[in-house]
Amino acid sequence: MKVQQMLTMLLRVMLMAPLMFIGAVILALTIDPVLSMWLIAPLPIIVGAVFLISKKAVPLFKSLQQKNDRLTLVLREGLTGLRTIRAFNRVDKEQVRFNKMNVDVSDTAMNANKLMVSLTPIMMFVLNFSLIFLIWFGAFRIEGGSLMVGELMAFIQYAMQMMFAVTIASVMIVAIPRAAVSANRILEVLDTVSEDQGTRETWHTDAGKGLLEFRQVSFRYPGAEKPVIQEVSFTAKPGETTAIVGGTGAGKTTLIQLIPRLFAGDSGSILLDGVDIRDIPHEHVRAQIGYVPQQSFLFKGTIAENIRHGYESATDEEVQHAASIAQATEFVSNMKDGFDSTLAQQGTNVSGGQRQRLAIARALVRKPGLYLFDDSFSALDFHTHTLLRQALQKEAGAATVIIATQQVESIKQADQIVVLSEGAVAGIGSHEELLKDCTVYQEMVAAKQAEEVTA
Ligand SMILES: Nc1ncnc2c1ncn2[C@@H]1O[C@H](COP(=O)(O)OP(=O)(O)O)[C@@H](O)[C@H]1O
Ligand SMILES: [Mg+2]
């Protein structure tokens, strides 16, 4: 692993300082063991000082790193939420919040660094004193004839080398706690393994397949108290439209995301054409799926490029065909460069409804065996929605279509409706069947009608 290599390199550089130090001491000992004592004597004092100071400074550096983290967070929120902040007149409040974080970070940095810089004068003081003694006692020994001037000069050189080593070490000591905090974070990401990658290469779908079956599937977000999906079972057949209805927070998005394995279920199993999706490599599962997420995310680039994210080698005709089913042709051709018009980062230069239609076209161009639409028509007007659904019906043909929505009236025609309430199935059936014997569904329809009456 790259990071580990970097860490070993750092370790080697760190070893350099003690080696220089020990080398100087050994050389000194070979010349005059007694005088060498004046080189070694300051060692315990220096080690003690380093130990005491870094014991105080390391926690400070750790918290500094965390505070830096929070400062970045506040800064990022301020930049991405700029319009929201302005619209709610929160500019001053946000400024205060940012200033507070900023002052907090700089205070901690000051304290930590003040501690660390106090190390250098202490070390210099001690080492220079040992140098004085060295010259003092060296002078007596030269006078007594047991030491030569050149040998004393060598001693002074060794002392210099030791000082240099100690300086390097103190720089390292400052860097280590910070590097350790950062390295741990990087390692956390690198060490996360994608769990149970299936290996069943024999599995493949032919056009017209895409039978999806949920068997007692439960799922809980990591760290959450309650499962958001509870023992859900249903079967979505090829050539049919299965609707998943439920209010906000019912678990529709979560349920949909379990299918391309964006999250892995805790218990139960999801089967695609009779094979557990855990036994199929992720890429194979995803290759069969045309997924339109609730939040239509587009990339910086041209419209054609964005649609081709669904299928790299789509021809121009295929791209245009997908766009026409998604009812995007009209607004795309009204743009200056048509399909070659550039989208801004995250597609912010087109409207929400236009973004949604491009995201739909991106899924359609794959010609998948299984379509997943997560609240994908919410930003479309009634007329566009009707046209799109009619075109989609024809295009999907023998594929399996799953539509998650909270708008009951839009999925009356679905072959099968799964009513989701707080993560559990409250009823399965056609519109008529559910109207007869599913209270949750009745309530949803009634609420919708009441809304229409008042409107
Ligand atoms: N990333 C997440 N981490 C933890 N809880 C989540 C996350 N996303 C959604 N939830 C919780 O799961 C529940 C279902 O959410 P979601 O599947 O988005 O519902 P829906 O799409 O039906 O509105 C919600 O109560 C929400 O609080
Ligand atoms: Mg949702």
From TrEMBL:
Q: Give the record's membrane topology.
A: Multi-pass membrane protein
Main location per the UniProt record: membrane
Name of the protein this chain belongs to: ABC transporter ATP-binding protein
Note the Gene3D superfamilies from the entry: ABC transporter type 1, transmembrane domain, P-loop containing nucleotide triphosphate hydrolases
Q: Which UniProt keywords apply?
A: ATP-binding, Membrane, Nucleotide-binding, Transmembrane, Transmembrane helix
| Taxon lineage | Bacteria, Bacillati, Bacillota, Bacilli, Bacillales
Where is this chain's protein located in or outside the cell?
Answer: Cell membrane
An MF annotation (GO) of this entry = ATP binding
Q: Which InterPro entries match?
A: AAA+_ATPase, ABC1_TM_dom, ABC1_TM_sf, ABC_transporter-like_ATP-bd, ABC_transporter-like_CS, P-loop_NTPase, Type_1_exporter
- Domain ABC transmembrane type-1 positions: 1-178
Q: Which residues form a coiled coil?
A: none
Q: Where is the ABC transporter domain?
A: 212-447
Which N-terminal residues, if any, form the signal peptide? none
Name the domain of life. Answer: Bacteria
Membrane-crossing residues?
Answer: 9-29, 35-53, 119-140, 152-176
Instruction: Indicate whether Metal-binding appears among the record's keywords.
Output: no
